[in-house]
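Weekly modeling sync, notes
Attendees: S.R. (lead), two postdocs, one rotation student

Agenda item 3: backlog of single-chain predictions. S.R. asked that every request posted to the team notebook include the full sequence so nobody has to chase files. The rotation student volunteered to paste the first one in as an example of the format we agreed on. Action items at the bottom.

Example entry:
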Amino acid sequence: MPRVKNGSQSNAKRKKLFSITKGYWGRKKNVYRRAREAFLKSLSNSFRDRRAKKREFRKLWIMRINAAARQNGMTYSTLMCGLKKAGIAVNRKMLADLAVQDQTVFSGIAEKAREALGR
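Predicted structure, as returned to the notebook:
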């Protein structure tokens, strides 16, 4: 039987990896071993940071809600407690959007939360 060396498959594998790591700096873009290490590291970073992004956005929404709540004479925690007691189910993303885009509606929601708390 003739000898088969997988040359074309190896070349295709390297070419695919180098096309993925095209914008990397230094040897990480054109040396196979370094490119593979950088690629695997970037996969783990992207997996980690997709979860970190969700945490960061939640923190941002809470900061925006707190700032708007303080303009209405409440804190974030009292606002959220009042919303829960009033039976208003609005998630933090929508509340933060209202706080930035439409302060009058947010003020109305804060007023309902204040009434539910009895203040």
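Discussion: group reviewed the output briefly. The chain has a mean pLDDT of 93.
Action items: rotation student to repeat for the remaining queue; S.R. to check formatting next week.
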